[in-house]
Design a protein that fits this description.
Elements: H1 6-16, H2 19-22, H3 36-44, E1 51-55, H4 62-75, E2 83-87, H5 98-113, E3 124-129, H6 137-146, E4 151-157, H7 160-168, E5 175-179, H8 185-192, H9 198-216, H10 218-232, H11 236-249, H12 261-284, H13 289-301, E6 305-306, H14 309-316, H15 320-332, E7 336-341, H16 346-351, E8 355-358, H17 361-367, H18 379-401, E9 410-413, E10 419-426, E11 429-435, H19 447-455, E12 461-465, E13 470-472, E14 475-479, H20 480-486
Parallel strand pairs: 1-4, 1-5, 2-3, 3-4, 7-9, 11-12, 12-14
Antiparallel strand pairs: 6-8, 7-8, 9-10, 10-11, 13-14
């Protein structure tokens, strides 16, 4: 392909940044509703010098959030031309090489800002979407960072490993990674019920949870949950309806406004195909992506269970080393989560099987053909879907409460068959979480947690139920929808 000429490239830049002409971001690019990730980035990350990396799966709203940040900058009085957005995979831009990348940056400064980079005084904001599609991105950004010019870079990508690799090699100490997944249940509630102050409810519950961990005792959390239940009482019926919808569709922003489940199924299959057959092939050079699709289907069928590597590799007719690589690829693009056995002994954790999940419940339901009301007729399947949601939300809560720490969760099981679904490791000790999505909890349902607590010192324990809110000694029983709001 012949190089793009200067006039065409300048036209591409203007087309990608319509606010240069209008001083406003089009509404279809920057919708009015802003998820909580937006407010966190705006408050905490806009003013420092580090490169902000938004990483997460396809279609979770990373690009939309970038447009909203640009809109916010313009509203604060920043000259619209001091914000540059560029999709690295734009086929018209030829940005996937050192020469093409530098040409874009130079043309922006010389033809749009009309200020040489060496003399700029006022800050410039550069947003690069899907940045790792340019292989040398980290080295190039390091070069610009080394110039110490007033440039703030924001980058996005769908691969955690590629961003992390660049951040730990060329850009060590210069990148702040912000994970961005589908909208949490709380975000979806804020979208559906804008008149209710759910933010305060969330903050109060998190404080109560952290206080309980830090020594105040399980009663602190229980009382906070009781207060929250009372405050939610006027809209509890709506919350239950939204919860059931979330069990089916998870939190893909595009699906919020789609009521037809047939259309949702079509869009989810599109997401999955793009992820498996485009991202995986590009990033990992997988020769047989159909095997990955079969693997994902098998993982969906046994989600929330221990992964038997020998059985999976035999059924797929691949070597166990290949299987482990494929699972790592699926984990890297956020389709699968693999939790280790909880132990302070690292070698024991490695030796034990891992517990596997298809991370997104909408993808999970779609693969299994249960993205409809038939899901609710299968109590066993509903329990696994709820456990998946609890696991993913707990991981995010762990990341928020203990920033800078890899948000990893664990499971636990002893030789007598006692087990705990999820273990959240905290500086004050592990918090065991059992998911029992029903309205009758008896002594037998406590045996796993009790066995865990005999072996490990825990600040408190949780059992996630359908509707029960109760304090049993040092174990808090909490309805699933309320726990998700806490996260």
């Amino acid at each position: 392909m012949s190089p793009i000429d200067d006039a065409t490239l300048l036209s591409v830049l203007h087309d990608s940044n319509p606010w240069w002409r209008t001083a406003t971001v089009p509404k279809e690019m920057a919708p009015k509703f802003k998820r909580r990730d937006f407010h966190f980035i705006r408050k905490n990350l806009m003013d420092d010098r580090s490169i902000i990396a938004l990483i997460g799966p396809r279609q979770v709203g990373k690009t939309t959030l970038i447009y909203q940040l640009i809109e916010e900058l313009i509203a604060k009085g920043i000259d619209p031309k001091r914000t540059l957005f560029m999709a690295v995979d734009n086929p018209r831009a030829d940005i996937k090489s050192d020469e093409g990348f530098n040409r874009i940056i130079e043309m922006y400064f010389n033809k749009v800002l009309k200020e040489p980079m060496s003399t700029i005084q006022d800050r410039v904001f550069i947003f690069l979407d899907e940045v790792t599609k340019f292989d040398e991105w980290a080295d190039q950004l390091k070069g610009y960072q080394d110039m110490k010019r007033p440039i703030k870079f924001f980058i996005t990508d769908s691969s955690s490993s590629r961003i992390s690799r660049g951040a730990s090699e060329s850009l060590i100490g210069r990148v702040t990674i912000q994970r961005m997944m589908t909208m949490k249940f709380l975000d979806c509630l804020l979208y559906r019920e804008p008149k209710v102050d759910l933010n305060k409810l969330n903050w109060d519950l998190r404080r109560a949870f952290q206080s309980a961990i830090n020594g105040k005792g399980p009663g602190t959390l229980f009382r906070g949950l009781e207060t929250a239940m009372d405050e939610l009482a006027p809209i509890d019926n709506q919350v239950r309806i939204h919860f059931n919808e979330y069990l089916l569709k998870d939190g893909y922003p595009e699906l919020l406004s789609i009521h037809s489940l047939d259309r949702c199924r079509t869009r989810l299959q599109d997401y999955l195909s793009l992820t498996l057959y485009k991202d995986v092939i590009r990033m990992f050079e997988v020769r047989h992506p159909a095997v990955l699709e079969d693997l994902l289907t098998m993982m969906a069928d046994c989600t929330a269970q221990l992964v038997e590597f020998s059985n999976l590799s035999a059924n797929l007719s691949i070597k166990q080393d290949t299987l482990r690589n494929y699972l790592q690829y699926l984990e890297d693009i956020y389709l699968v989560t693999l939790n280790e056995f909880y132990s302070r002994n690292r070698s024991l954790r490695i030796r034990k099987n891992r517990k596997g999940y298809v991370s997104n419940t909408a993808i999970l339901n779609n693969i299994l053909g249960q993205l409809d009301d038939s899901l609710f007729e299968d109590k066993s399947r509903v329990g696994r879907v709820v456990e998946t949601l609890i696991m993913e939300h707990t991981k995010r809560l762990n990341y928020i409460l203990y920033p800078g720490k890899e948000p990893r969760l664990f499971y636990w099981r002893d030789r007598r068959g006692h087990e705990v679904d999820i273990v959240m490791d905290t500086p004050k000790g592990p918090v065991p979480i059992e998911v029992k999505f029903r309205n009758k909890i008896d002594d037998e349902d406590h045996t796993g947690i009790e066995a865990f607590n005999r072996e490990h010192k825990s600040p408190l324990s949780l059992i996630v139920t359908e509707n029960l809110l109760r304090l049993d000694d040092r174990t808090v029983l909490v309805p699933a929808r309320l726990f998700l709001i806490l996260c």
